[in-house]
Amino acid sequence: MVAFVSYFVYAYVALPILWKVLYEKRYEICPLAKCWRPLIKCLSESSCRTWLVDVAQCQKPNSTALEESAKHYQHVQHPTDPAYCQYESFDRLKTATALDFLECIGRSGCMAPAKYTDVCVDMTLLGPPLPLDTIPTHVLHGKWRKVFTSGWDLWPCQWTEFWAPHTPEEEHPPDSWMTEWPNNPNVWRMDLYWKNSKDASFTFHMNNEMYIGDTWDFDPRSAQATLRTRAIMWSTEAHENWYLLDWTEEWNTMMIYYCAYTSAVNRYDSMTMVLQREDSPPLNKEQARYYEQLAKDILGDYHGTLRRIRPCGS
Question: Is the peptide bond before 182 cis (omega within 30 degrees of 0)?
Fold first, then answer.
């Protein structure tokens, strides 16, 4: 997730896993042994089969697909990562056949270490982040649009919903893997939604538990965080440390840096993002420039160069 994507980033986990599973020699037998039934179904379905072909094209060093992807993602730490190229085929993952295959790969133990991994910000060199209660509970609870990202998650029309502790289960039932929300008063829920392209008919959805005031210890550069998150998607678990760097009440806008880690593939993702409540007027040019400069002032150009997310309907 960012990765989450973080945040997972998250979507940034599943495709790198799948590529390694299918094409790295040490692991190529594993899915045939453990996931041969869903693999056969995938190969028998046009959309799923085309997705596998796209994955293969993205692995070829001189392929047109990989070269175009590297241009599109030149702002990230590893532009030639085949995973970013594979994101362009995300829409083909909307069928039950494709998702069943991913679920099998995720739980099978076939995952190989990621080829690329980010370097996260050394947060021990910065001051403490803002606590989450800097944002009033009634403001945080609700729907937010993603305005900026520094990472690979450039998909148009992204939004996030935050759910406070003790939300009635009949209003929003917890996922089966959730152990703390909604009963733990110190745990929020975060739902992420995104479309792979402007005209996509399918919307992806991923859930997280947010542990307020806690920090994962996966990176020695991780200072005390505003919160830590836990997410499971396609049977793969990912963790993030979130640092709230700015909250501007007048614009209902927050800026967050997070470092994500997926132990199954030993991969880090480093991202900065700006979120704004959906019911607030969109940032104007002057306000947008404020965040673009603020991110660089705090994190430097390497981690703080922001890219605008295309809003829904544009």
Answer: yes
